[in-house]
Structure formats: structure tokens, C-alpha cells
Amino acid sequence: MSRILLEVEGLSTHFMTRNGVLKAVNDVSFTLHEGEIIGLVGESGSGKSVTGFSILGLVDPPGKIVAGSVRLQGRELIGMSEPDLRAVRGREISMVFQDPSTTLNPVLSIGTQMRLALEAHETLSRQAADARCIDVLNKVGIPDAARRLGYFPHQFSGGMRQRVAIAIALLNHPKLIICDEPTTALDVSIQAQILLQMKTLAQDFGTAMIWISHDLSTVSSVASQLLVMYAGRIIESGPVRDLLRVPDHPYTRGLLNSLPDHASPGQPLVQIPGQMPSLIGLGAECAFVSRCNQSDALCQTSPALRSKGARRVRCHHPVAGDWQ
Amino acid sequence: MLGFVIQRVCQAVVVMLIISVLVFVGVYAVGNPIDVLISPDATQLIREQTIKAYGLDQPLWKQYFDFLVRLVQGDFGRSFVYNMPVIDLIFSRLPATIELTLTAVLGATVLGVPLGIYAGYRPDTVLSKMIMGLSIFGFSVPTFWIGLVLIFTFAVTLGWFPAGNRGPTASLFGIEWSFLTGEGLAYLFLPALNLSLFKFAMMVRLARAGTRETMLTDTVKFARASGESELTILYRHVLRLISIPIVTVFGLELGSTLAFAVVTETIFSWPGVGKLIIDSISTLDRPVMVAYLMLVALLFIMINLTVDIVYVFLDPRLRHRRS
Q: For B301-310, how does the pLDDT look when each residue is reduced to its tens digit (9 = 90+)?
């Protein structure tokens, strides 16, 4: 096994809203090795994006990291000074967002935007900077990159724009890229291309990735480890194949069953009944209890994380036995 | 780009033609200028001679045509009151107004935009609240009152600045400017401050609103995630993104201030065109009114054209749509 890159321990990010404390990320822990791709899955509002932003120290007020530790190669990022954090962002950990048409600045040429990202970390001559940009653009599959440096975002298609955003994220050869649903806003055919390309790039550069998505099938095609998030907590984790073959948490099972591939033609898709509870004022009970068909009196207390080999589950009644 | 400019110049010619009709109808065709031009006890002969001399016996379309021909030749006639060519009269006053207006609008923008960006970036600090308080003050207090207070405080009580008039000037490109002499600057200061307060308030509000909106976008988040400093983000990303509405308002304000700096010019006895037009209206000096209106229309058209060209440089999406 390669060396540990990132250790997240007991990370909790809360939003101090007018109606109370919203626990967007609640005691999240996981470990990421160098070059590893880990998938972070959950439905909207489960806290997966906030987890990504928390790692980078980019939680906007009223959000606040209230507890936990994020160690990058042993260095603690939580509580680090803003200038030190800025040196980490983009250079050691970078991020790709969902919609490239909103992340790229519409009034700056992509060359300018790439140079700004480079100059944030080092002083380069114009020629050297351009050479770096062209090199990375070629690697992400943008042909004729030298000419396209002068192009503006609106002159690219959606897929090409996302490639530019990925190029910016790769520019300083970071050790980790947090991908926040980078293919969700794209056409299905382009999704597959970008997915494959990012997987190859991660291998070539030795970059680790946290792939955030609500789409189990996308994640399972890139990631080796899977984290399933529900109501701000990680409720199940483990190696992708193992976890998808035998999901232990009723929620993961529900997610898998609701995939269209599992439905018979002409039959309605399977759903998980109900909705995720409000993250404000979560009670002591298991957050999934109202939607679960296995629940009993035990579920009125929040389940602890149980482990079995590389697998973890937060449930009183995991499907398979042998849990400690 | 060139095609766009040519198209806009053609539009400008059409607009100027329409304005000339309106001005002609409004100033020449309404009322009887003869009653103003000659004394009531003049003989019928003198009356007819005057009517003939001013072409008032011609049909209306012919009169308009003659008026247009004179306009194109740059002949706006002579001022009844000052008895000198109107064009000379206006150009002797215009530099004073241009100087005052540019100082006020540029000053308001150069100060207002950074303060507005700061107020949008850190909305909860004491300084931001003070900036916003000042901008509410600038919006709500009438110009004439502020002008009087400024004169009372800084000219009468403290004696730091002169109370009015233009003061000494120096010549540049054959035009007299106040800002070239130290004392001239002192004369310029109070009226420019008076005129700029409202524009400052507007620029602060625009920049603040734009910044608050932009800071929440993914563009800023992505720039932060790339490790760019907050200063780079504000200067390179936010300023560029909010510049289009600012340039729009800058152009509009510049035009309307050039045309209607009347209140400030009157309070500070600033010898600009605003004061000239008020005087010419009260003395029914028609050629001056006509020339002034045409000039204001032309200025607006030129400013709007410049603003449109600046847009094309600021927003690449427009650049490619047009070419």
C-alpha cells in the first residue's frame, strides 16, 4: 500500500443559521492514500460538497469548521493561517467544480485565467507560463492549445470548458484534486470521455482524487474506495466492488436498487420512501430511521461506526453479519 | 468593429436630424421671435424688413432647411444678449464645465468604486457601514443645500477655499484650464466636491452591489481554490466583472452632468455652459438655446458611442457576436 496522503478525522462543519445550527458535515473521518481515487456519494444536501470545501478551508460564512482535523502528509490544515492555506490551495490540493460555465471567468481569456492560477504560486516569465499552460491543455485533450490561450470561455463547448477547468486544477501538479460533480453538467457521451481522461491523468500525474457525486454508477467507474454520505455523516465505506456487491447499510442498498439498471422494463423505478431529515436539530436517533424498513427500538439511538476488514458501516442492523 | 462604428455614426446622424427638428419646432416655430427682436413701436416697414431678414416670410419647411444648412456650416447665429457668434460664446464657456464635470465624475468613480468594492467585500465592518452611511447621505441631501453648506463651512467660516468663481487659469492647447494652476485648483475644489457627492454615492452602491453578487459566484470560489490571493481576486476578477454597469453609469452621468451642472454652477458662480443656458432662457436668447441643445445632444451621442466601444473591450462575448 502506498503512503497516506490525507487523513480526515472527526471533521464537523456547521452552519449557524437563523433557525439553528445546521450540521452539514458531522464527524466525518476517512483516509486517502497517494494516487488513490475515492468516491464520495450521497444525495443533494448530504454534505458531500461541504466536506470538499472544508478540506480546502473554503467554507463561506455562516459555515464554520467546528471540530476535527485534516492532515495533508501529516500537516494539519485546520487552523492553518490564511496565507499558508492559500499556498496549499491549487498547489497541493485543487478543486474542479460542477458547472464550468460558472467557474471560469467569462471576461478573461483562458490564458489569463491560467496564468493567474500559476502566478498565485510562482513567478514565471510570460513564455515559461504559456509553455506550462499549453502543455497542460494538451494533456487534457485540447488541440491547438497555443492559439486557444487567447480564447474566452464562451468560445468553447461545455465539455471543452470543463477540460480547461481541469487543466487549471492540474496546472501546479497538485497531490490531490477534489472533483465536485465535474461531469454532472455535461452530456452523457462527454461525461464518459472526461471520466476516462481524468482517471488516466490521475494515474499519469500520480494525483489522488476525491470524486464527489450523487451518481453511483459514475463514481464506481473511477473510484477504488467508496464513501456513502447521508445527513452529514459517512454511513458506509469500503472498496467499491465489495461495497456495491454486498451493500450493508439499508440506505446504500436503497440507492443501488433505485438505479435504472435494476429496474425491469415497463416497471416504475424503485424509490427510497420519504426525504432526508432537516440537518437543523437532528435528534439522537439514526438519521435514516424514518425511511428505513429495518428499524426497531434500537434505532432511536444513533448507531456507532462498526468495522469489518476494510468496510465500515453506521447501522444497528447491517445486512450481512460478522460486524464488530 | 469598424462596421459597428460606421453603423453607429449613421444612427447618430439620424438622431441629430430628429433633434434638430425638435429644437427647431420648439425654439423657432413656436411663438413669434419678431416680438422679441424689435420694439413694439417699430414701423410696419421695419417690421417687414426684419421678417424678411430672418427669413420668417418663407414656408416652414424652407425655414427649417435654411436652419439646417446654417447648422451644418457651423453657423448658429449671434447671441442677442452678448452680440457675438454663439459658437464662440459656448466654446468660451465649455472648458469650465468640462473641467468641473470631469473632475467631479472621475473623482467620484476613482474614490467610489474601490470603497464600494470594499463595502461589498466586507459588508459588516465599521468602515463599510460608514461608507454606506456617507452614500445614503450623498443620495438624500439636495445638491443646492450641500453647496450652500460647503460654502458656509469651508469658504466663509474656515476660509480654506474661495466661495465662488473660477479663479486663475493657464492655457493648454489654446484653451484656458483651472487645474493647471494651484490657485485654480482651490477654486475648482468645492464645486467639484459638491457635484461629485451624488455620483460618488451612486458609484459606491453600484460597486458594492456588484461585488456582493460576484463574491458568491463559483468564479470566485474557483479562483480561491486555485490559491489566488483575495487582492488578485478583487482586482483581476471582481473589478472586471462589475465594470460594465459602472462604465454605463459613468457615461450617463458624464453626459447629464455636462448638460445639467446648472445648480452647482449657479451656486458657485462657475462660468460654465449651465449658467449660460439659464441666463439665455431668462433673456430669451434663442440662438444660444438652440446651439446649446444641439451641443448637448451631440455630446450624449458621442459619450454613448464611446461607452459602447468600451463595452466591446470589456466583454469578449460582445466582441465575437459582432465580428
A: 888 888 888 8
ipTM confidence: 0.87
State the average pLDDT for chain A: 85
Is A135 part of any domain?
yes
User: Based on the domain organization, do A155 and A208 belong to the same domain?
Assistant: no
A89 beta partners: A93
How is A28-51 classified by DSSP, letter by letter? EEEEEETT-EEEEE--TTSSHHHH
pTM for this prediction: 0.80
Q: Same domain for A20 and A123?
A: no
A61 touches chain B (CB under 8 A): no
Residues of chain B found within 8 Å of residue A169, distances taken between Cβ atoms: 226
* Closest residue by Cα to residue B258 from B106, B116, B76, B109: B106
C-beta atoms of B227 and A103 within 8 A:
no
B204 has a pLDDT exceeding 90: yes
Q: Which of A89, A104, A116 sits opposite B225 (nearest CB)?
A: A89
> For B259-290, how does the pLDDT look when each residue is reduced to its tens digit (9 = 90+)?
778 888 888 888 888 888 888 877 777 778 88
| CATH code of the domain containing A197 | 3.40.50.300
Cβ B225–A94 below 8 Å, yes or no? Answer: yes
* The total number of structural domains that make up chain A: 2
Phi, psi values for residue A177, rounded to 5°: -120, 125
CB contact under 8 A, B226 and A116: yes
Residue A135 is part of which domain span? 108-168
